[in-house]
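pasting for ref
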Amino acid sequence: MDFRVVWSPEAIEDVEAIADYIAKDSQHYARAVVLKLLEAARDIRDYPKAGRVVPELADDAVREQFVYSYRLIYEVRERDVVIVAVIHGKRQLDSLPGGGSQ
């Protein structure tokens, strides 16, 4: 069963900030990172449980995939996969943006 992938406003802001930061040094690499993030998000719809559980949250519904040095963090819901954040791999996630699991 294919899931619908939905981007939270916070995750979109994260990607825009990442692209802006990388573009200061390389427009080409910024585009490549964004395209890879979008590709990873599309792939999640087929296998949403393939990502690992986010260790800081220990919630089976909240998972992540690494894309380059970034963590693409998403929440698996009934028929949707919600991309909730995209953060640097060294950064810890204290809670889900927007107030947590729904």
